[in-house]
Design a protein that fits this description.
Shape: globular
Mean pLDDT: 96
CATH architecture: Roll
CATH class: Mainly Beta
Number of helices: 5
Oligomer: single chain
Low-confidence stretches: none
Helix content: 10-25%
Largest sheet: 7 strands, antiparallel
Radius of gyration: 18 Å
Strand order of the largest sheet: 3-2-6-9-10-5-4
CATH topology: Pnp Oxidase, Chain A
Length: 202
């Protein structure tokens, strides 16, 4: 099948776009407003952009609390969602009004960052502390702003729980990082295999 996205006449029960662009890591974004209100929200439009420097991004459909707080304070955290925390991650996705603490709502511990004034999930196997480098709305091919707000941050601190490390590496079987697929489907990265890049001998 083929369909043009300007008509979306795919004939399927649900739009397949997000199922095709998957699996997507989940950024569990922790922020604090200028008024001190804590916020925690999962974003499946999240990924690493660069290793030198270490840059990550999350994209929000609409101007949500995470974007507002990151813009106000210039910082945010991104906690790793392991399979063991899947239900609590889902609880924190509730569309609560501003000022509701999703850490408390989901029964999670908000731990203060070492280098940024933002909380992260203490129960997570790993978390990133980030300073905002840019916030923008991406444009479409006609130059119009999309409804999404992209937040890019430079990672300036990394937390890793000792029990998540085996032989100098994150133990993926233990951590089982959660990924978003299409629809309401999720997967975890606990079942892994290795491949090494070929080297050109010519």
């Amino acid at each position: 099948m083929f369909y043009s996205t300007d008509t979306n006449r795919h004939g399927l029960k649900h739009d397949p776009f997000k199922a095709i662009v998957s699996p997507r890591p989940i950024g569990w974004i922790g922020t604090k407003g200028k008024d001190g209100a804590l916020n925690l929200g999962p974003y499946s439009f999240f990924n690493a952009l660069s290793d030198r420097p270490k840059l990550v991004m999350f994209s929000s459909a609409g101007y949500k609390h995470s974007v507002r707080n990151a813009e106000e304070t210039g910082v945010f955290t991104a906690s790793l969602v392991g399979k063991a925390l899947a239900e609590k991650m889902n609880e924190s996705s509730i569309d609560a009004p501003y000022g509701v603490d999703e850490f408390a709502l989901a029964g999670l511990t908000a731990r203060q960052g070492e280098l940024v004034d933002a909380p992260f999930v203490d129960e997570a196997y790993a978390a990133l502390e980030c300073r905002v480098t840019s916030i923008f709305r991406p444009k479409d091919i006609e130059g119009m702003d999309s409804d999404s707000h992209v937040v890019i941050g430079q990672v300036i601190g990394i937390h890793i729980r000792d029990e998540a490390v085996q032989e100098g590496r994150l133990d993926m079987a233990k951590v089982a990082p959660l990924a978003r697929l299409g629809y309401m489907d999720y997967a975890d990265g606990g079942d892994t295999f290795e491949m090494f890049r070929p080297k050109w001998e010519g």
